[in-house]
Amino acid sequence: MKVIEYRGAGGIEVLGLAERPLPLPGPGEVLVRVVAAGLNRPDVQQRRGLYPPPPSASDIPGLDLSGIVERAAPGISWPCVGDAVCAIVTGAAHAEYCAVPVEQCLTIPRGLSFVEAASLPEVFFTAWNNVIWLGRLNEGETLLVQGGTSGVGLAAIQIAKRLRGARVIATAGTPEKRRICLETGADAAIDYRNPNWPALVREVAPEAGVDVILDAQAGDYTRPHMELLAPDGRLVLIASHRGTEAVVDLRAVVRRRLTLTGSTLRPRPPAYKGRLGRELREQVWPLLESGQINTRICAALPMERAAEAHALLDANEQIGKVVLVMDPALADSEPSGRAAG
Amino acid sequence: MKVIEYRGAGGIEVLGLAERPLPLPGPGEVLVRVVAAGLNRPDVQQRRGLYPPPPSASDIPGLDLSGIVERAAPGISWPCVGDAVCAIVTGAAHAEYCAVPVEQCLTIPRGLSFVEAASLPEVFFTAWNNVIWLGRLNEGETLLVQGGTSGVGLAAIQIAKRLRGARVIATAGTPEKRRICLETGADAAIDYRNPNWPALVREVAPEAGVDVILDAQAGDYTRPHMELLAPDGRLVLIASHRGTEAVVDLRAVVRRRLTLTGSTLRPRPPAYKGRLGRELREQVWPLLESGQINTRICAALPMERAAEAHALLDANEQIGKVVLVMDPALADSEPSGRAAG
Hints:
Two copies of one chain form a homodimer. By secondary structure, chain A is an alpha/beta fold. Chain A is 31% helix and 27% strand. The A-B interface holds A 218-219, 222, 237-240, 243-251, 253-255, 257-264 and B 218-219, 222, 237-240, 243-251, 253-255, 257-264.
């Protein structure tokens, strides 16, 4: 099968197509013929040599996909051969075939194409894990999304608005991106390129502050973030692009009962992802089917043009998801898979 | 009524007895004739001017007490006039009478004296709030208690061992205190005066590290604490005696999914304390009655000798609780109150 390979660490010049043997589905796994796969920030970080895959993961990039089950290990009741699924994986989605633990498979929401389905898992699993589980966003609380037009940002805005009735403040670096944040449901959109952005957030936040912050920047954003938190507020980090250290005011942690936490989903076991997936299927998938939650595709490019796809993320000008297409014939079609039992 | 007053901020010379009018129980409150009251670290910090009482709290110190209900606001089904109770309060327990929200009252465990009952609320509420609720200590996990012979430390060791089957590592500054930690149930006791204490903890902790750390020191302990945490580990701060700032490794927070949090219980509303109290009554009080969990009284001194009591905490040589006695005739007797309905 054809796969995308990183030949060393660096810019898009390290990208290449290669031939690899078909993966064998292990116990509890299905082999999926990949129709489309998301390109996510960690794929780019891995290409740059900044984010090595976890010890047991493949060196082939790619963290989510959609496709059709080609083969299933014995004893699996769903999905069956021929079923359309989307899935989150620990790697190896940028390939024509991928072996996936069944817990990590989800039905494709009715009405969505394979390309749209491939854009869902990584960002919705990440948003749910960090905003709902770690951030424990409650009904009517205020969420600050740092980087509102990232895939995770757009998912977080919609989950917070549609499922928690939260007040959402998003940041974005261009007027166009801020417009998209508002269109997606944010109550306010702030320019993080303005050095006074914390004061601008403070102006639109409730007097007590912000209850939950979702942030991939860390570094020098951490101090203003901790200051912006309301009593019992939670800062949830999903990466540390701006720096890996910060001075934290521990007295404020005690007195205002603040929480600083963070996570990576990738090394989590299939059972954990399965629990996340069940909540997504029950709570988010119906809203994707009814159109109350949407996925935004920035570009869908055949795997031969992976370099163009990476260049879009390198420039950081994409709004919404960039998707790689392995099977152009099926990419835009709406699958007709059976739902999970 | 007689109360203990702080005349300015400083050493034990600022302590004095004063006359104050009897407090009036407001709606949902009972007036308790205080038999005994705990002396806690925050009382000493308040005396030193380092811990101002929350805006709505009394200037009279004292955070927990035992006594007999003297009067009750209308519509209160429990406790009734004549019932013996112990309670956590936001202040004003170092007095002959104290008005207490009913949610914050608890029955006195059978077999315990008023002095022993007065030693329970602040430390068990604090240990439960931070180890069980914020720290989410699970069955079989490892807990590090920084300062194992403090009142909160001894409560935390016992809760973790007896109710969670946890592995407990405690620190203490003298051989005698370390002996008490082990006697109380800790699996290991480490000398925090040894500059290599983090390595000593590492030696006795499971390979992955410690799951929960309960700490009142903060400051320069924070970095080794974060390093000692296992994946998904939680550092819970209840004060910041060694310093109010620390550099935190944010990449470790993301990659190892660490949590840094903390709390003060005092400003929490009665409903929150009521929820904590119900869990204590259901899960801890039976073990106090059966003798599987104990309270350790270091000294019980009449309120006229409050200066001696404070001096014990100033010297930091006490092991277990220091209690002030307002009614010496009842102090050591076992009350015969009715249990909550």
